[in-house]
Specification:
0% strand; single chain; mainly alpha
Length: 261
């Protein structure tokens, strides 16, 4: 559905003012004024109104997300959509998912291609899937596609390899935080990458080990990360993340291993 189809017709909206309280009538007239301004290339009022309807009055955020996409504010819309979709009680989930998917400008039959990948996932298949994606939509299409594959139940280790094909991404970290990536998968990613970054990957592997419940491996991996890290890339973020997740006993084990606080 286009944004034009979502905007209210002035005649119908004005008619709905009859029988309403002055407060309700004021809201209708405010919406009319904002939509009129938007059609005159002054979208700020409508943006503010839709935001207020969601944030202050608890209405669905779908219209706000769709209008951000309509205006070309892709990054802002994508960040908000992913945040909303991460909530179990996300309202109008299908509308928000559709708005998010549109940001990556998927070509015809993209969903069919994604389903084919899900049936036989591999790094080579990922390369083939993404190889003709234009640079200007690559970031959003990659993230949207990974979320689709996660929803289809594709193995987390494979998705982690895809998500880190060109470096660390938010989706890779999210997979680790969900406990869907084996520590060895993260360790191997570090072996395959530049030597100066291996300490960072080892630190992330330590976090994966902790989330998977392997406390002793957590200590060993984090100790190795700290001792082998390049001076320019210390794994401090992972040290702090593990420390925050650890209980008193594990923190004491980390202290004895020489892990900084």
């Amino acid at each position: 559905m286009s944004w034009a189809e979502l905007t209210a017709d002035e005649g119908r909206a004005a008619a709905t003012c009859r029988g309403r309280t002055s407060s309700e009538e004021a809201q209708v007239l405010t919406r009319l004024a904002a939509e009129a301004a938007a059609r005159l290339d002054r979208p700020g009022e409508l943006v503010g109104l839709l935001l207020a309807e969601w944030r202050d009055r608890g209405e669905s955020p779908a219209r706000y997300v769709e209008y951000l996409v309509h205006l070309g504010h892709d990054h802002m819309a994508a960040v908000l959509a992913r945040y909303l979709l991460s909530k179990p009680d996300c309202p109008e989930r299908s509308r928000i998912e559709a708005a998010l998917e549109s940001i990556g400008s998927p070509p015809d039959r993209w969903q069919e291609a994604v389903l084919m990948f899900a049936a036989a996932p591999s790094l080579d298949a990922w390369e083939q899937l993404m190889q003709f994606t234009p640079d200007d939509v690559f970031y959003h299409r990659e993230r949207n596609t990974l979320q689709m594959l996660l929803g289809l139940g594709v193995d987390g280790d494979i998705l982690f390899q895809c998500a880190t094909r060109y470096g660390a991404t938010p989706d890779a970290l999210e997979l680790v935080e969900r406990g869907q990536v084996a520590p060895e998968t993260v360790v191997q990613r570090g072996r395959d990458g530049p030597a100066e970054a291996r300490g960072l990957w080892l630190g992330l592997a330590a976090r994966a080990a902790l989330i998977c419940g392997d406390r002793f491996r957590t200590v060993r991996l984090l100790k190795e990360a700290v001792e082998t890290a390049s001076p320019g890339f210390p794994p401090l973020t992972e040290v702090w993340a593990v420390r925050e997740l650890a209980d008193d006993e594990l923190n004491e084990m980390l202290d004895k291993a020489g892990i900084p606080r």
